[in-house]
Design brief:
6 helices
Length: 188
Amino acid sequence: MAGATRPAVSASDRIAQLNNLDKDVAKLLQYAGTAIKTVTNSPSESGKSQHDQAQSIEQRKSNFSASSSEYFGTLASIDVRLRRHIIALENAGILPSEMSAAELQPTQTDVKSSQLSTASNKTTITNGGLGNLDIGWLNSRNDHAEKTMEAELWGEAQKLVQRTLDNKLRLEDENDATTSDDRAMPAG
């Protein structure tokens, strides 16, 4: 299966996946809030008996454990999916890879050397830091222009064929007229 290729993921699929990630971030915050709430003392529990509080502590431990497990599971899932999106953007050349991003970060010596000499700058940021984002590449993902151009070409081809047929018919009519005129005249 190492040689198998994955089907291309469309932009709308990527946006839907990012929307699901956004929803999972909200769930992540909810799990964190629930976990914190279970370990804090709420004022309504202060009037309970010691037996009720003991059961409540066991229930709290269980709730905290469940909430923290959900929190860390969701956090790991979000992390993996975000990394996949970053890798896809790097592979498409939209974002610079981690290696080239690290090269773009100026070090102390780079700052000093740039202050001393501005003639040569190795770190160039293109397209406002978006990397090699090519509008032509984005447009090629939309086949509307291609379909429109194809329709125009078919229309021009149809007109060309029609003109050719009209010219051929006109020439045949002229030849027929000339031939009939030659037959009608006596040789003399």
